[in-house]
Amino acid sequence: MKTAFKKEWQKRIKIGKIRWAVSLLLIIISAALLAAARMSVDFADWFGFNIYPVFSGIGARMWGIFPFSAGEIFVILVILGAIAGLVCLILYVKHRKGSRFRAFLNGFSWGVAGASAIFFLVTVNCLLGYSRTPFSVYSGLTLGEYTSDELKGLTLYLVEKANAAVKEAELDKDGRPVKPENFGDLACECMEKAAEKYPVLENYYPRPKAVLASEVMSSFNLAGIFFPVTVEANYNQSMPVSSQGFTACHELSHLSGFMREDEANYIAFIACRESDSPYFRYSGYLDALTYALNAYRTAASDEEYYSVTAMIDPVILSEYNYRNEYWAPFRKKVTYKVSSTVNDAYLKANNQTDGAKSYGRVVDLMLAEWKAEGTENDIVSE
After folding, report:
1. Residue 320 in contact with residue 327, Cβ under 8 Å?
2. Once rounded to an integer, what is the mean pLDDT over residues 147-165?
């Protein structure tokens, strides 16, 4: 009996060593890929065009068959698994008298194996994308300084476009946009149409998924999230409907391999404005105008700023107020503030030196395109 137990114990130790070896290998590969991408844009681009589509395509197709967010379920299982694993590890070590350290390492190897696998998937499906050549290069845009008058011109242009879009959108009795029944399919069509204009965006786009725990997302200041483990675009279905279209396209844009937030915003704007759906066009222009107004607010006097906002359709102003009323209670929560701080640190750690402010740098891209086309013309040929 003791001999059988000893053999079984030795077998478990051997398997544990294999797990440690595999985990270490995954960590080394991930770290090497990250270092190579940070040191060489050419490598990051090569990976993004040749290897990333394979990993993302497999993951997107595999998890895309589920109508619910597999990423959301995964997070819940990881949390529950971590708690259960900790309890089991304590009991496991407790009953291994005389070899508790080995027992600890053997049991802990399961957690390390899982973490290293997640780290590898996050690396290949997300982190390497931050080192790629910026999307602005592929779009032919030249970023530079701009004047207050140029910013005003762009803002007025977007006011005009948003005012036209709201008149085409289907609204309910309260003036809120009605979400299309085929929302997910339309979001994918938006991205596919954007890829016709910019082939670098060509990729497989699974339908974006609404998160069931969207109220929790709101408390963490999350409108959407790209989940690299399952390669899913998730969005907050509790926030105002007017934000959901732009957010869905923003998260889908990460599947094209472009991870910088300003570029994801710009790609989402392109996707929405090119859409045949009045809802998505309205959502796109509404968010683009939001960023432009925020930028113009800091560059203009009160009189100049309010002269521009006076031209905005009352329905849009009502929508902005509705958005502010929704988010106001969440801004007071500790989770909201902590999440904002963590997100800011995460972005800075991934070559986005502006941190959370990088979301607003979409204005630089819109201005570059607007100036390239000429102030008297549309941002794009229509």
Report:
1. no
2. 92
